[in-house]
Design a protein that fits this description.
With 476 residues, this protein is α/β, with parallel strands linked by helices. The chain folds into three domains: 272 residues, HUPs (Rossmann fold, 3-Layer(aba) Sandwich); 135 residues, Orthogonal Bundle (Isoleucyl-tRNA Synthetase, Domain 1); 47 residues, no CATH class. Helices cover 45% and strands 15% of the residues. The strands form five sheets. Strands 5-4-3-10-11 form a five-stranded parallel beta sheet, with helices on both faces. The chain has a four-stranded antiparallel beta sheet with strand order 6-7-8-9, with helices on one face. It has a two-stranded antiparallel sheet with strand order 1-2.
């Protein structure tokens, strides 16, 4: 296998990735809290997860990927304050928490499908919903209590953060002191906690909370952080290779995951923490649900933009760099998508099933090299566009195998596009108009040619002029 390098938030440097078990990657990524539609900033993070998984697979790894869905316990503040986000939405919409979670989980999966983001591989093709893993969370909390890093009071079971961090009080991942971590928090905390820094593992004595389960400490529900540790350990083991999420998870959620996991097992929790940067608006502010109005994938569809153009738009910036969102920027990515789609539709059978030209292979080498250098997707995308341009310049389309291998990471389904184009049969009247237009162009009757173009467009067909004649395609 070729060396693959990725930025490790734990070390603050780009490192060569070496898995615990040769050829196998254990990978946990934080999934959504399903109380509202996932905005485009969220989807950028999930696209990053997909790109990382596909790149590891391109390098020959068997990727064992787990992703959770939070359907209980995530309060309106990450600091256990406020109310459960799902219950808040349930009250506002007049539905049960389960109905809310099911509805927004469905929207999330629909968006994944529109963006051609692959589902987790462990369990195969399934997401781990928090409410289905309550016994695993209770068992893990019990281990933490046995090790002396948690305590029980009337309001819940809490993790003793100050005992875990010790005298220096610094977080290993965030590199923040407890005071720095909480400096911007102005929240009310349970009065019986030993310290304001302690976080909830299990919440008790909240009779108004609709979702509750029995536990050794009383009837209640889990805190937000414990689910990720429990699910990760259940499927991937006590130490995993990679854990990913957005940068906003670093100071609290992932810091707390490390504390609760390692206090229970006495083993390192994660070897490579990888975080993606924010999608920001034109004014530079992070796109988030808390900001009120936030763009979602359906907004792009309503604007006439193919969702896959957003995928290419995100490919155009490194995952560790902020990416400024605008409709114009996504439309520019749509142009690249149209360019690649047009090429795929025009690939003939002999090129699709024959060997590539010798000149094409170095482009794949450069593509993989870019991805293996800390997921340099802008450079990788540039190589893809370059090899297609060179194919046109040479009038040699023997690059299909190379392009399909690249597309295993790009995720555009170019082979599917080619197959659908090859099997597409135009209606007889449309084929007749196409033939008439070719004849008009041969006679240099451009007025007639333009009129026929307008007629085809009005009937829902796109028209492209190529060296071999008029190409007519049904508009998607």
């Amino acid at each position: 296998m070729r060396p693959f390098f990725i930025y490790n938030t734990l070390s603050r440097k780009v490192e060569e990735f070496v898995p615990l078990k040769p050829g196998v990657v254990t990978y946990y990524s934080c999934g959504p809290t399903v109380y509202l539609p996932q905005h485009l900033g969220n989807m950028r993070t999930f696209l990053f997860t997909d790109t990382l998984t596909r790149t590891l697979r391109l390098n020959g790894y068997d990727v064992r990927h787990v992703m959770n869905i939070t359907d209980v316990g995530h309060m309106t503040s990450d600091e256990d304050a406020g109310e459960d986000k799902i219950e808040k939405t349930a009250r506002a919409e007049g539905r049960s928490p389960t109905e809310v979670a099911d509805y927004y989980t469905g929207l999330f999966i629909r968006d994944l499908e529109m963006l051609q983001i692959e589902k987790p591989t462990v369990p195969p093709g399934q997401f781990c919903r928090a409410t289905e893993y309550i016994p695993d969370m209770i068992a893990l909390i019990g281990r933490i209590l046995e090790q002396g890093y948690a305590y029980v009071v009337d309001s819940g079971v809490y993790f003793d953060v100050e005992k875990w961090r010790g005298p220096n009080r610094m977080g290993r991942l965030s590199r923040q002191s407890l005071e720095e971590q909480h400096s911007e928090q102005r929240l009310e905390h349970a009065s019986d906690k030993r310290s304001k820094h302690d976080f909830a593992l299990w919440v008790l004595n909240q009779p108004a909370h609709a979702m509750q389960w029995d536990s050794p400490w009383g009837r209640g529900y889990p805190g937000w952080h414990i689910e990720c540790s429990a699910m990760s350990m259940k499927y991937l083991g006590e130490t995993i290779d990679i854990h990913s999420g957005g940068l906003d998870h670093v100071p609290i959620h992932h810091e707390n995951e490390i504390a609760q996991s390692e206090s229970a097992t006495g083993r390192p929790f994660v070897r490579y923490f990888v975080h993606s940067a924010f999608l920001v608006g034109m004014e530079g502010a992070k796109i988030s649900k808390s900001s009120g109005r936030f763009p979602v994938l359906a907004d792009l569809v309503a604007a006439g933009i193919d969702p896959i153009a957003f995928r290419l738009f995100c490919f155009g910036a490194k995952y560790r760099s902020e990416l400024t969102f605008s409709l114009d920027a996504v439309r520019a990515a749509q142009s690249n998508l149209d360019y690649l789609t047009e090429f795929a539709r025009g690939v003939q059978l002999e090129c699709a099933h024959g060997a590539d030209g010798d000149w094409a292979h170095p482009y794949f080498e450069r593509f993989q090299e870019a991805l293996n250098n800390d997921l340099n997707t802008p450079q990788a995308l540039a190589v893809v566009l370059e090899v297609v341009r060179e194919s046109y310049r040479r009038n040699d389309k023997r690059i299909w195998n190379t392009l399909v291998r690249m597309d295993s990471v790009l995720g555009l389904d170019l082979e599917g596009i080619r197959r659908r184009a090859a099997s597409e049969t135009l209606p007889a009247e449309i084929e007749a108009l196409r033939a008439q237009r070719d004849e008009a162009r041969k006679r240099k009757d451009f007025a007639r040619s333009d009129a026929l173009r307008r007629e085809l467009l009005s009937r829902g067909f796109d028209v492209k002029d190529t060296s071999s004649g008029t190409v007519v395609q049904r508009r998607n």
